[in-house]
Amino acid sequence: MKLFKIKKNNQKGVTMIEILLSISIISFLVLTIYLTLTKAVSNMGESKQRVGAVAIANEKIEIIRNLDYDEIGIVNGVISGPMLASETVVRNGFDYNVGIDIRYIDDPLDDTGINDLINTDYKLVQVSVQWQHEDRIDKVEFVSSFVPDGVETDMGGGTLVLNTMTSGGDPVGNVSVHLDSVEDSPAVDYSTSTDNQGSLVLQGVPSQTYRISFSKSGYENVRTYPNPPASSFTPNNIDFYVNEGDLNSKNFFIDLASNLTFKAIDVVDESGISGIDINLIGGKEIGSDPTTYNLDDTSPTDSNGEIKYENISSGSYEISNPENLGTGDYIFIGSVDEAIFNLVAGDNLEVELLFGDAGVPSLYVTVLDEVTEEPIEGAGIGIANISGFDQGDITREDGTAFFPLTVEPPVLLVNGEHTIEVRMVGYNDYSDTIDINDLTIKEIKLTPQ
């Protein structure tokens, strides 16, 4: 018998797990290489942009160095000259925002303030160049001092000192300040900012009247106003006059901005109602004779039934036209909040205004404490008629309830006489008849036991 020897195949097959593992490793390596290259390209782009920004800043400084000392200044600046306060420069395909600020400095080596008869010792030039890189803003900043030849001389004008703080007296730093000359003698249209402690000192400011405005992200806007008759009121912050040779100082109060949203709501289904015109008056009081606030606006609700006010001043606000609120068949029936309310600095307040269809038989009830006239939450209300309508509900936080209730299948309220009962623990029961005539509004006061 011939024997055959079976030769075994020692080669191993490749499993699916090994294939997936290989793909994962290769994908990881490719992704790592891609991210590294992307970062390298980004860094190269950033470096190229920064080199361009430095070159622009150097050019501006060199231009200023070649000016006579008396010419160093900015167009319509406190220190007048040929340089632009702000401009956009395109370099190597990139946009750069270039800003130049030039101001006088009172050198402490020869005294400061009222002890120094000449406080315009030299000029400080600040050149900043900003650019957008991906999702952030980068900036380079050059600062240089320019000293006059020979003995110092009085450059004229006065010293302007401005301080920005909250109503509570806490300093608010890095506030943008804009000076706009009223008489334009000379013309000044100058922007700068307070320091970290909310202080700004400007020497050599030409003697005339200035309109001054303040702004900072997240804070209300504050400004000065002209005297009557240019203003229809007597301003609290009048346009500021800088006296020649004097120290002219003033404090300005700037608080955190607030947000306010009105919502016009159909009381039946809580949907938004568009086209409701709301006249809102309030905020910071800016003048008297007559009392005037910095917000007096009439706007309609949008498609969602809302009006949004963003970054407005805190203070007392009033809806001045509650009797005229409404549109089409909708009429104003009440609000969870008062028509007059206080908006706190930094607050984000929502005010709901409730409306009902005037042509639909319905009942809007408000239950109050007869002594305190405060709304009563959780009071039970029942309403019925001889036709078989019979519904009950409890009052909401604002003491209100609305009939007919939304149920399936719908039950309609009809015009005519109905009985109404109200019960609440700690109060005497209330019972009466009420005549429903389309949209009916009723206020009920419960007597404490």
Mind telling me which CATH architecture of the largest domain this is?
Sandwich
Going by CATH, the homologous superfamily of the largest domain would be Immunoglobulins
CATH topology of the largest domain: Immunoglobulin-like
Let me know the largest β-sheet. Answer: 5 strands, antiparallel
List the domain count as a whole number: 4
Question: Briefly, what CATH class of the largest domain?
Answer: Mainly Beta
Order of helices and strands: HEEEEEEEEEEEEEEEEEEEEEEEEEEEEE
From the spread of the alpha carbons, the general shape counts as flat
Distance between the termini: 119 Å
Could you list the spans in which at least 5 consecutive residues all have pLDDT below 50? 1-8
- Roughly how many Å is the radius of gyration? 36 Å
- Please report which band the strand proportion falls in: under 5%, 5-15%, 15-25%, 25-35%, 35-45% or over 45%: 35-45%
- The total count of strands amounts to 29
Number of contiguous helices:
1
Please bin the fraction of helical residues.
10-25%
Could you describe the 3D structure shown?
The protein has 449 residues and is mainly beta. The chain has four domains: 53-146, no CATH class; 158-253, Carboxypeptidase-like, regulatory domain (Immunoglobulin-like); 258-357, Immunoglobulin-like; 362-446, Immunoglobulins (Immunoglobulin-like). Helix content is 11%, strand content 44%. The chain is built from one helix and 29 strands. It has one helix at residues 16-65, and strands at 86-91, 94-105, 122-133, 136-146, 158-165, 176-181, 189-193, 199-205, 209-215, 222-223, 234-235, 240-241, 247-253, 258-266, 277-288, 292-300, 306-312, 315-319, 326-327, 330-335, 340-343, 348-357, 362-369, 380-384, 390-394, 400-403, 416-423, 430-436, 439-446. Strands 6, 7, 9, 10 and 12 form a five-stranded antiparallel β-sheet that branches. Strands 11, 15, 16, 18 and 21 form a five-stranded antiparallel β-sheet that branches. Strand 9 (209-215) and strand 10 form a beta hairpin. The radius of gyration is 36 Å and the shape is flat.
